[in-house]
């Protein structure tokens, strides 16, 4: 069964579940939780509509397919086509975009800056806009040495988010996904990735932000201790916690979405790993069938799988 389809459709379904309730508070969702695929709501979009999370993931996949390697200018070019011309959007028009992502795409085009130098590097540039689209690199980097994995994740994150906190978040997510592709359980993957991160040359003041994720009792954290804002560390924590405390794909993504606030991205980031953990067959069929442009997404996954295939 295709790990690519499981991961990417898992991401896309989680994204679409979260779109109608984005920005809704946790308290409101506790009273009226998401239990199925919905339509309209926050962005007035039809049922099964995915957001920029999936769009930029698809752009990265397509660039890898066409270039057969990392081409930062091509990736940035596809991001530009998405933002300005609605490329790889569900309905031909962008309805949701993070401020940092929009700003850096404009910098690449208006200032002719090198793509991996475009992303903001200040403390306030740590939204989840690169984490939400980074998952395809787990397949591309699966058999690459650690040094190459660090370099590539850094470059691709930095197109929009160049601060070390964003880069480390992306690195952890990709490394966990690679472990899961190897059949390693999530708790064991976290132990391994924690050791790996400790071997890299990131300052301790940056790594300390991720201590909670790697602690053995993280899964015992209460829901009140888990935040679900657009801050990249919050998204990573919320996603891993949702997986650690669930027993199915559906339970994990619904738990993530019902945390509130940045629901589409928390759902997408959770959904990608949940797809890997539980497999394509465990993603509810009726949720997948309601995805907008499902045939296009499936075709993209097939092309990507043929080039970067790991069963």
UniProtKB/TrEMBL annotation:
Family matches, as InterPro entries: ADP-ribosylglycohydrolase, Ribosyl_crysJ1, Ribosyl_crysJ1_sf
SUPFAM superfamilies: ADP-ribosylglycohydrolase (SSF101478)
Gene3D superfamilies to which the protein is assigned, alphabetical: ADP-ribosylation/Crystallin J1
Lineage: superkingdom: Bacteria
First and last residue of the signal peptide: none
Keyword vocabulary terms for this entry: Hydrolase
Protein name listed in UniProt: ADP-ribosylglycohydrolase family protein
Originating species: Cohnella boryungensis
């Amino acid at each position: 069964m295709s790990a690519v389809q499981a991961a990417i459709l898992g991401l896309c379904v989680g994204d679409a579940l979260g779109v109608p309730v984005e920005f809704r508070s946790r308290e409101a969702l506790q009273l009226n939780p998401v239990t199925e695929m919905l339509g309209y709501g926050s962005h007035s979009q039809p049922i099964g509509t995915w957001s920029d999370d999936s769009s930029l993931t698809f752009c990265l996949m397509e660039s890898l397919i066409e270039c057969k390697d990392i081409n930062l200018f091509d990736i940035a070019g596809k991001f530009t086509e998405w933002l300005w011309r609605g490329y790889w959007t569900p309905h031909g028009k962008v309805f949701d975009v993070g401020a940092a992502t929009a700003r850096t795409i404009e910098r690449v085009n208006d200032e002719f800056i090198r793509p991996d130098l475009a992303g903001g590097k200040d403390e306030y540039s740590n939204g989840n806009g690169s984490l939400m689209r980074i998952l395809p690199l787990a397949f591309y980097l699966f058999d690459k040495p650690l040094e190459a994995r660090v370099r590539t994740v850094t470059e691709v994150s930095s197109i929009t988010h160049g601060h070390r906190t964003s880069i480390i978040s992306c690195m952890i997510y990709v490394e966990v996904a690679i472990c899961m592709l190897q059949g390693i359980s999530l708790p064991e993957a976290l132990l391994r990735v924690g050791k790996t991160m400790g071997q890299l040359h990131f300052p301790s003041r940056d790594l300390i932000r991720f201590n909670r994720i790697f602690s053995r009792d993280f899964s015992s954290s209460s829901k009140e201790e888990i935040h679900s804002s657009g801050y990249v560390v919050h998204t990573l924590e919320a996603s891993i916690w949702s997986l650690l405390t669930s027993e199915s794909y559906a339970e994990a993504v619904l738990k993530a979405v019902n945390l509130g606030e940045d629901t589409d991205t928390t759902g997408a980031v959770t959904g990608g790993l949940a797809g890997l953990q539980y497999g394509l067959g465990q993603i509810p069929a009726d949720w997948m069938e309601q995805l907008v442009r499902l045939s296009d997404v499936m075709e993209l996954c097939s092309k990507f799988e043929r080039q970067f295939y790991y069963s």
